[in-house]
Amino acid sequence: MEEKSEQLAGYMQKVADMAIEYAPRVLMAIITLLIGLWIIGRIIKFLEKVMANRGMDVSLRKFLGSLLGIALKVMLLFSVAGQFGVDTTSFIAIIGALMVGIGMALNGSIGHLASGVMLMIFKPFKVGDLVTIGGGHTGTVEAINAFNTALATLDNKRIYVANSNVTGNTITNISGQGVVGVELTFGIGYNDSIDKAREIILQVGKECPHIIDEPIQGVVVAELGDSSVNLATRPFCKSEHYWDVMFYMQENVKKAFDTQGVGIPYPTMDINMIQNN
């Protein structure tokens, strides 16, 4: 009985010694954790405020803030674990190996995600802009998602272009400036009057309800082609009326040419035949 009492006393002494030894560490770890979480919260709020002042998209602010918060909290947990004498090197190595494996498995998706973040940061276009992206896809931007960009085409189709294809190709923002010029070319015959054709094109432009007065529309000789004199014009309009102006001008210039006797020639070829006797 006395031997059991001595063993119990020994156990109690060991518990007391461990409590005395680890109590400061536990207390310090708790304090470090609480203060660290508070500091991380303040850092995230400060960075979100800075991003908001710079006009960054709210979805991007939340995404970047969440990503930074996770990274800082992981670092804080490693710091707290180190206060208990835990060797964090092995944990870091394991996590690093897992991240490498995940990164290799999701290589393409991570590239699309990174490209999506770049699109939201630099904003080459926004929702509602008429653009040509991804190697020649033209349409109105409906959404900039994490992995792809959605376009609505004129014929009511929806195209999803991978974000890495967007950033990896030339981006043409047709309507991003608010006012856009509509590039048009009209061919007339060599026997037709350039001045008369110019007058007709400008008159049709004045009658178009969507063409604005400034910048003023002009008509120039762009090319002396094989079978036609090509006249170029660039009427300006609001971005949302781009297609309206293009279709209006093409149809009504053709009608006006027909009415006033200006020809739009077909390609022709002169063939000389040599007869050998």
Features:
277 residues, alpha+beta, Helix Hairpins, SH3 type barrels, Alpha-Beta Plaits, 3 domains, three-stranded antiparallel β-sheet, 7 helices
The domain tally reads 3
Tally of DSSP β-strands? 10
- What is the CATH class name of the largest domain? Mainly Alpha
The Rg value, from CA coordinates, equals: 35 Å
**Strand order across the largest sheet:** 4-3-2-1-5
Query: What class would the helix/strand composition place it in?
Result: alpha+beta
User: Would you tell me the overall average pLDDT?
Assistant: 80
Helix-strand sequence: HHHHEEEEHEEEHEEEH
Spatial shape: elongated
Q: Compute the separation of the termini in Å.
A: 141 Å
| Count of DSSP-assigned helices | 7
User: Largest sheet, if any?
Assistant: 5 strands, antiparallel
Architecture of the largest domain in CATH? Orthogonal Bundle
Helix content: 40-55%
**CATH third-level topology of the largest domain:** Helix Hairpins
- Low-pLDDT residue spans: none
Q: How big a fraction of the residues is strand?
A: 15-25%
